[in-house]
Write a structure and sequence with these properties.
Chain A is α+β, with helices and mostly antiparallel strands. The first copy, chain A, is built from 1 helix and 6 strands; from the N terminus they run ββαββββ.
């Protein structure tokens, strides 16, 4: 199975969090897992907050990137598009809410899951949990919107 | 003037986003600016989202670290503590809300400002804006809580 991020067109595959073409990035990869999506990530020792625990900014970043990939997956499923063979629509984040329920231990693999909330037009809401190793330590709710014209290459504001 | 982060005890100065003792971190530094706090940051070229724009996870991380430092500053001010000479109480994030109002251009220095919301007991709410270069592109609301006992060194869950 290829990752959702592998279905992004090259022009939009540079994201620091999950772009396959970003050499210094985190290369988060999100997959279908039944009705949900899942990604796994092992933080580096320097991704620390207070010693022993994962930095909250990194956790927000993982929630964010997994949510936008999940939005692509859920939008594709709703439209009957098979991301194994077709390119995906690319989503970006309009708003991100992250609740840190418990400190997340630094060391174990983190498991990030996404479930679909409402889909309407260009907007997909994604519910995210992050577990380490078995306890949910972080919950996220992310409003994702399809990439606006102003962010596409060739637009005066774009690259 | 020393940064708020310079008033953190060494044991809690390892944060990936703003710890002075984290060699691979971002070293965000937050200062008083009148009644508010301010930090400045220039993203690296690889902190990209869609080409031309800053990664949303990094933006969330900057909002997060500036908010927890601001919480230390606002709590100190409320208690009459001078962070130029004394150590600060260390705050962590309970919940983070980030609204991406406009795409944030990659290149210019980002200016992150914090204003105090309600302070009650161990909790400080911080309102954050991020501008690049003059337009506010991101708004954040962060609920910060004083470092819980379970995250302190020596506790079974801690380092």
């Amino acid at each position: 199975m290829r990752a959702v991020q592998d279905s992004y067109p090259d022009a939009w595959a540079h994201c620091f969090g999950c772009g396959r073409l970003n050499e210094q990035g985190y290369h988060l990869r999100s997959y279908w897992d039944g009705e949900e999506t899942v990604a796994r990530f092992v933080p580096r020792p320097y991704h620390v907050a207070i010693p022993g625990f994962v930095n909250g900014g990194l956790l927000a970043s993982l929630v964010d990137c997994h949510a936008t990939a999940s939005a692509s997956a859920f939008a594709a499923r709703a439209a009957g598009v098979d991301l194994e063979r077709e390119e995906s629509r690319r989503f970006v984040t309009a708003s991100l809410r992250v609740d840190y329920l418990h400190p997340t231990p630094l060391g174990p693999e983190l498991v990030i899951r996404g479930a679909s909330g409402p889909i309407s037009g260009r907007k997909v809401v994604v519910h995210v949990t992050l577990s380490a190793p078995s306890e949910v330590t972080v919950r996220g709710e992310v409003v994702c919107v399809e990439l606006p014209e102003t962010m596409k290459p060739g637009h005066p504001l774009g690259a």
